[in-house]
Amino acid sequence: MGQDYLKKILTARVYDVAIESPMEHAPQLSARLGNQIHFKREDQQPVFSFKLRGAYNKMAHLPAASLKRGVIAASAGNHAQGVALGAQRLGCKAVIVMPVTTPQVKIDAVKARGAEVVLHGDSYSDAYQHAVLLEKKHKLTFVHPFDDPDVIAGQGTVGMEILRQHQGPLDAVFVAIGGGGLISGVAAYIKQVRPEVRIIGVQTEDSDAMAQSVAAGKRVQLQDVGLFSDGTAVKLVGGETFRLVQKYVDEFVRVNTDEVCAAIKDVFTDTRSVLEPAGALAVAGAKKWVEQHRARGKTLVAIACGANMNFDRLRFVAERAEVGEAREAVFAVTLPEERGAFKRFCEAVGPRNVTEFNYRISDSSEAHVFVGLSISKRDESAAISRAFKKAGFANIDLTDNELAKTHVRHLVGGRSSLAKDELLYRFEFPERPGALMRFLNTMHPDWNISLFHYRNQGADYGRILVGLQVPSHEKKELRSFLKNLGYRHWDETDNPAYRLFLR
User: Fold this and answer.
1) pTM higher than the cut 0.85
2) Does 229 share its domain with 360?
3) pLDDT band at residue 316, thresholds of 50, 70 and 90?
């Protein structure tokens, strides 16, 4: 059967619609990891993913009578676009069943290729069941997204290209796994031509059906899957893909959401391209594998398999990439509610860059602040925690706390009965060391900071919101302070949003 796949891949018909995607060296990531990292750029395909290879190969091998009746698929993403493009090129009818929850941009992309879209159900499973009914009713041919030999062979041409484009030393190829179509084809080819090259599958921690199945020796169906990497969110892998992965794949790496976000940023840094989460999975896996094995001097290929990113996800990705790259540590720190405590805390932080600071006065004796700090390596947060404790500040390391990173950082605040004589100002600080300390050193020592919010957004200046408790008879001193400070500022004390939620 393995020899059959080698022949099927070598004779696959994909280049009517697909390009031979480039292999690109990643200089900055390579330098940082101490290994030679290459990206196989499947995100540059006409539908921005590898999926058109397998879909077209399946359709191109259909008998003329089957093509005349048409094809059907169930998909909410890249496979749908691949089938639609293939049908457009072959001049056959294509019906794509998509969940009603599918974003309009994806529906429009499929329709633009001439396919008929049927919206049904809330999930892929619902859409799949309806597609099976329509397949029988209209005598259409079902094009499976992964569990079909012709689809697997089409995806296997990615592996064929990798070996053709990189004929020198190659230690490992990293491949994202959803249902297993891509890794099955890539592994079936590479392991027969260059068996010494390791094939490493990458899955998210909350969608690891293939890794669990291989460990159990049988296909395992997951109850739930994570949705961030929606392109690999598969509850049950294919029977044929499971067989091939068992036979050819050497090991698996599991990564979390933050690590995927960091990988998206890494690819952008080296290529100025933005991958979707599933598309960056292999890169995240390569980075984690290097760290786990302390690998140095290896030559590694990561398949960048898709770039159909929803634009509204970019804010989340940017927010979480720093933690995923171990560039940010997040803490809850308790300070005594007394004059000068905030300044002492800043001195304890030292030269580190503060990436975030959230605080709202809520207790007369203690202040609880949410703070983010730049770090250079993963274990640095423990040393920071010890330094805070030595300075007299109790603290909790929240770097791996999902609730804190996703929600609590945005919810620190609220009204406070202790915020008497509070004035609210919005500032633009220059994004350079010492800007905050200059603010604190210039401020009147008797004024209390009752609210403080700051988040580094990567600009040349920081946006800061500060609540100052200034007695009414000291307004003149306040105006003088603001003038001498020289930072752009706005008085937001009468802002209706402040009055409704914070005052």
Assistant:
1) no
2) no
3) confident
